[in-house]
Amino acid sequence: MPPAQRGGCLCALGFLWLFAVVEAKTRTYYLGIVEENWDYAPSGKNLITGQNLLEDKFASVYATRGANRIGRVYKKAIFRQFTDDTYSQEIPKAAWLGFLGPVLKAEEEDVIIVHLKNFASRPYSVHPHGVFYDKDSEGALYPDGTGGKSKEDDFVVPGGNYTYTWPVRKDYSPTLADSNCLTWIYHSHIDTPRDIASGLIGPLLVCKKGTADETSIEGTGAANAFALMFSIVDENFSWYLDENINTFCLEPASVDKEDEGFLTSNRMHAINGYIYGNLPGLEMCADTSMSWHLFGMGSEIDIHAAYFYGHTFTNRDQRADVIGLFPATFITAEMNPGNPGRWLITCQVNEHLRGGMEALYDVQICQKNLSRPSPLSHKRRYYIAAEEVLWNYGPDGYDKFTGQGLNATGSESAIYFTQGTNRIGGQYWKVRYVEYTDATFSKKKIWSEDMKHLGILGPIIKAEVGDTILVTFANKAKRSYSIMAHGVSFSKLSEGAPYLDATDAVKDTNSGLVGPLLVCRKNTLNQDGTQKGIDREFYLLFSIFDENDSWYLRKNIEAFTGDPSKVDENDADFKESNKMHVESCQSAYGWHPMPLEHMLKPQSH
């Protein structure tokens, strides 16, 4: 054969081989809907603190079974995967999926076929996000004008089955700028809020060609992808609420389903259906690229800030360690976990953190020669102390926008600044991060005029990529505190986070311990730490300081109320008076605008 012809054959064979690699597949799944009892915390413990759930002030609200309380175990409906249409052999799923259904995966131009069998006691369906479907495979019950076969998909009766076909078209697939696999979900869609609250939801990944099978997300052991649902699972909306009351409440007849305490006890602040660190199996190898497939579901209270301790990730080409999740938002975050150890995942919303929306993930050393970063060049030293201070949210005594006194009768600010028999007013004992010049902690660093807008915030910690930040921390307060950082790498010895120690992140921050940290590109900071090419820098905290959740609440009551014995700490009006809304660029100056006048002055260059 002439060389030219041989080359032509080789090229043709190469083309055929490439085509075979990316050839579209039909991916078939046999899903069964089964009813079973689900335990949100099977260990019976808060595995973050080691405390028994029934002895934990906050966890006991959700875990206690009693006369008119269900406890931590609920009947649910769950998607399970089987090997074939006999539904006789279940395919085990990864433990970390919790009550989520199995992971469905497909690539561009694949076709997903789902054979659904309903073993439950009421009708359900399966409806996908992120893939194409015809009306006969929508799996959603609503008045869409269809009938006959196009209506059969809407619900599957108990004992029935139906086959859904979902093509993965190009216009549903990841773009060049997307991650390899996009995060979507599937769920029952007869009465969506009730179906999902009952447990019928699972992850669906739509991937670029040639990448789906590289995503190790099923099975046991170390994986390179995980799917996490952050949701306050409201069991009050479950189809099985009455059955759960009759099964688990010790005196079912005493239950008032409208009682606020009962309603609260059934709102499980869960990650994949587990609370207080009970989510198992989040194990990965250090120095292995992996992805987190994150989604939020629920109602207006499901506003979540998912924080991964010890590592950062990228999402849409931006680096972060916290990501916002809302109902029906689907995120793919990519991480290269290079920091071995056991680390926390939490929702940073205070109420959700207290409610148990937290888990642990293990970064394991899977190879002998784990790569370590090269020694960092420049060390930036900070000497920071925690000090108790008397803080006034409105030191001038009047609202600079209206001219009214902050405690003027009828003013919007009066509720927060009126001091009286059972009201604290606008002045509180707090704790702050304060910077010193050296390790003797004898001389405080003086703030320039440009820094005074920081208010109660701690000093600005700055570094460039490649630097090492060295913080010497002195606790000058009367109780235990720590200091931890977002957005930088640290070992377990420098984490400063509460696992089994005496600190409390919610109380610590409400008490005042928070400050800014800036991570800059290489060669963008001047010798004095200012940013090159930037005339002014402003650091603004938008928050409600809840003084009811401060370590110093009792001290403030004793110091500032007219008659501490008459203070009811649980009174709703008292609680509201202590929620200081530091907003509109006020950085803990409350109704007193922080000193930003200098930002309007002409600048010399």
Automatic annotation (TrEMBL):
Pfam families: Cu-oxidase_2, Cu-oxidase_3. One of its GO terms (cellular component) is plasma membrane. Residues 1-24 form the signal peptide. Residues 99-208, 315-360 form the Plastocyanin-like domain. GO terms for molecular function: copper ion binding; ferroxidase activity. SUPFAM superfamilies: Cupredoxins. The keyword Signal applies. Keywords: Disulfide bond, Glycoprotein, Metal-binding, Oxidoreductase, Repeat, Signal. Coiled coil: none annotated. One of its GO terms (biological process) is iron ion transport. Belongs to the multicopper oxidase family. This is Hephaestin like 1. It comes from Accipiter nisus (Eurasian sparrowhawk).
